Amino acid sequence: MLRKHWKLSSVIVVVLAGLTLSIGALAGRQVAQQDKKATIDQVPDAVKATLLSQGGAIEEIEIEAENGRTIYEADVTVGGQKVEMKVAADGSLLGKEVDDEDNDEEDNDRDQESEDEDEAPLSIDQVPDVVRATLLREAQGGTIKEIEQENEDGQIVYGAEVVLNGQEFDLKVAPDTGELISKETDDEDDEEPQEK
User: Fold this and answer.
1) CB atoms near residue 33 (< 10 Å)
2) 133-138: long-range contacts (C-beta < 8 A, 24 or more apart)?
3) 129 CB contacts (<8 Å, ≥6 apart)?
4) Who contacts 17 (Cβ-Cβ below 8 Å, separation ≥6)?
5) Residue-wise pLDDT tens digits, 9-55
6) pTM here?
């Protein structure tokens, strides 16, 4: 009886070990398939159009699967900064953030120089169409004094000083959607943003 139990236990252990190895190999193959590298010519036209519209030099594109959806993650250098963009297969921009992989002193100096360059004044013609539309709508009847591309907490935004009816406002606009993030008067520096 004890011998029979021993054989049955041995068979179960061997079957479980084989099953574990098979599942591990399958999972490894799926992960490898999910993180494929691609060139700009290998991605769908909608993804290509979105990536190219953002400006900058595309360094690398990876095809990933997130929650059953195909996502195209691209590393792009914009104005000397590495930016990571995520684009859905339909071309919609899912996210964009500054890539902070290297934190040594030399890179921090270069990042500071890039931030200073990003905050150089821009003309209304130098901003993305969606940002331009928002700024012109918000400044209607007023004057846009200055526009800058800024880095706030690793996110690129467009800031603008607008004068309306003699009052100066600071606007923050999302670069990919044109959404008005905040609209503050100069005397509200540390207060909550006004409602949009």
Assistant:
1) 10
2) 133/178, 134/171, 134/173, 134/178, 134/179, 134/180, 135/160, 135/162, 135/171, 135/173, 138/162, 138/169, 138/171, 138/180, 138/183
3) 178
4) none
5) 666 766 666 556 555 555 544 444 457 898 888 999 988 888 888 77
6) 0.40
CB 183 within 8 A of CB 171: yes
Condensed to tens digits (0 to 9), the pLDDT of residues 117-171 reads 445 688 888 888 999 999 999 988 889 999 998 888 778 889 999 998 889 999 9
Tell the burial category of 31 from Cβ atoms under 10 Å away from its Cβ (0-12, 13-18, 19+). exposed
Q: How far is CA 165 from CA 58, 79, 169, 187, in A?
A: 43, 35, 10, 15
